[in-house]
Design a protein that fits this description.
heterotrimer; A alpha/beta (about 350); B alpha/beta (about 230); C mainly alpha (about 300); B: about 230 residues; alpha/beta; three-stranded antiparallel sheet; 8 helices; globular; C: about 300 residues; mainly alpha
Chain lengths: ~350, ~230, ~300
Amino acid sequence: MKRSGLGRGLRMALAALVTTAGLGTGAAALAAPVPVVASFSILGDMVREVGGENVSVTTLVGPDGDAHTYEPTPANVRELARARLLVVNGIDFETWLPRLTQAAGFKGTTVVAADGVKVRRFAGEEGHDAHGHDHDDGHAQGAGHDHGDHDHDHDHDHDHDHDHDHDEAGGGHHHVMDPHAWQDLRNAVIYVRNIARALAAVDPANAQAYGKRADAYVARLEALDARARATFGAIDPARRKVVSSHDAFGYFGDAYGVTFIPVEGLSTQGEPSAAEVARIIAQVRREKVPALFVENISSPRLVEQIARETGAKVGGTLYSDALSRPGQPGATYLGMFEWNVEQLAAALRR
Amino acid sequence: MSAAAPLLTLENADFGWGGQAVVRGVSGAFRAGTMTAVVGPNGVGKSTLMKGLAGALAPLAGAVRRHDDGRARVAWLPQRADLDLAFPLDVHDLVAMGAWRRTGAWRGLGAAEQARIDAAMARTGIAALARRRLDTLSGGQLQRALFARLLVQDADLLLLDEPFAAVDTETVHQLCRLLGELNREGRTVIAVLHDREVVRAYFGDTLALARADGAGRVQAWAPTPAALDGEAP
Amino acid sequence: MSAWQALHAWLVDPFVQFGFMRRALAGAVALAAGAAPVGVFLVLRRMSLMGDAMSHAILPGVAAGYLLAGLSVPAMMAGGVFTGLAVALLSGLVTRLTPLREDASFAAFYLISLALGVTLVSLRGSSTDLMHVLFGTVLGMDDAALYMAAAVTTLTLGVLALIFRPLVYECFDPGFLRMQGRAGAWAHGAFLALVVLNLVGGFQVLGTLMVVGLMMLPAASARFWARSVGGQIALAMALAMVASAAGLLLSFHLDLPASPAIILAAGAVYLCSVAGGPRGGLWQGARRSRRRALAITGDMR
């Protein structure tokens, strides 16, 4: 009796062991993380949120890096060659990318995160089409356009070809479009959805997991968006002006009703002339701008000088084009955004 | 000639640059109060030897000894090519350089020094050129100015590297007479010269260098008549 | 508006109305007062290109200081001084011990330094940081930067006064002081240190690339107007200050970047001096040869 009990128990145990082992190896084979390359740190963070343990993310332009003037390294070429998915911002943000993808012989899928975003133009740029069209024509091109083909063709006709050149294949294009779409949380939602869709296409086995994580992330994004609107809504509109040394907050300003006055243009390289600085000071004095902010990738000296001369307050750092290193508040996208909102609100409230 | 004490003794000394000896095997003594001419063909190493005597070049082999416990002051008259004549100095400043040992970098030129400078310029016949820029001087005038500096330096050992290149004959004789006066004051003079007539006329001793076995060597070092007569043509 | 008022508006108002213009002028003037005399000696000693090479040589030190301590001026200055002197020493050694002459050995070292410096800055910072190191931020001079510039200039003028005589002698007749002790070598060393100090002190104001322009161009210009060493120094200082003011005004009225504008103004002064300066200028030379030609033909008649 005992022996047969033992024998049966043993057999069951063995069967369980074998099954588990079989399932285990099967699962292991299925669970190899998808290699993904993200062009810069903000996208990298988003991909990590949506992909979780199912993806292995490499970021090209790392924390505190400057994606406008990035020069790819040989290591980047290797990373890209191994990847199955490339996540880029688009809107001419990564002008150095086409050469890199070519050098790497990249055969995977590319997803443009800003696909479907309403692209903003810079104010005061000599337009190819200055009047009224600003918001209508600025759609990022990509697969899966929602409009009917009719409108699409129409837009193609009237449109200035430059509108459609501006994605990652741009290269050498004059910067009229503002690429910093992630500074508006509603756009971030679009980014996340695009990323989730792309991940699901490349790795259908885990599509459900991606979908779930994306939903959770979007919920957090939307909650923060609501909080930001409330915060800025509570501030006197006349005080909602800041001077920042980087022209990267156009979308932010449009979304939350804050006017950003730049010290240097979009390019982080130009040396300002005395005339520019004088104009900014005159404007700050005239419009009584309450606060100045300094970026994590531009020079703070100039901004401090303007603060000294105008009596405006120098706020803390704002994160614009890149996340910070781990351990600092701007290490994740949500963290960075929350930090920016808090800093701006605190400075403007005073 | 005289039994004066040796001032500079060389013991089988070699001199050269970057490890390569240009002048080899120099042995002998310069006695105090003598006037010695150093002669030889171009490139044989006369300047090199002079720099060795001045102490600016350490011997590659052998030894150079000074017999004065370092108390003798040495004055060096440079070749024209070693000077930057485009530099904005006037003649007075050049002559005033001679007072360096006494004034150093910071002390001003007092009345005593100024008097010495004026006297030196008068003695060399250039008192009228005091404010002339150096690049406006002729060869002879420049040499007079350098000699005036030498006077102000008031040294015991005078080393002159090609002092009469590009100088007119009149000036050469005047300056040689000046050297003779300085020599009679007890100073030792050693000079590189080309003109054999001048050597015979003013210099008691002669050191003749010639190329032998791939380097400059002393061919003769003796009172002038003997040294020059024995010189290879 | 009368002509006088218009002139006043153009030349003086920008400085009256804006603090940053006053500070920029103060910083540039302070730098000019120290750098111009050093530049005069560089020109007189035929060391002009060496001055330019030195400005590249200090870059890796500044970059290393930046890499280790961020935009900390003392760190960057210490680094710059260190590598500047190191390059000077190393190239001197190579010249002494190998057949390579001074110009080639110096060129080799400063090129290495420049590449090293660019690498270091790019490792940690963006090209913006590189731009700021190379071109300075004359429009953003804070109190610390102004004090630093003033301190460098005061030290420079003090040391120059001390080593003036041996420096002049050493320029003219290098062998003379060598026979009389080590004063010449000390003076030369102190002078090199001053060159490095002014380049490093000036990089905040004008950047490492441009500061050598403010050092050399007024000095080269002064040569065409003044006779004595003292005269050239005084004139070089004045010209450097005028160029600073002019450059800032150009930047203000014509919307040009500030530090290159200052150097361009200094360059314009130089070109005028070459063309029309009384001592060796081209126009003067042409007049003299014409007069000589006329005199000869006059004699022949």
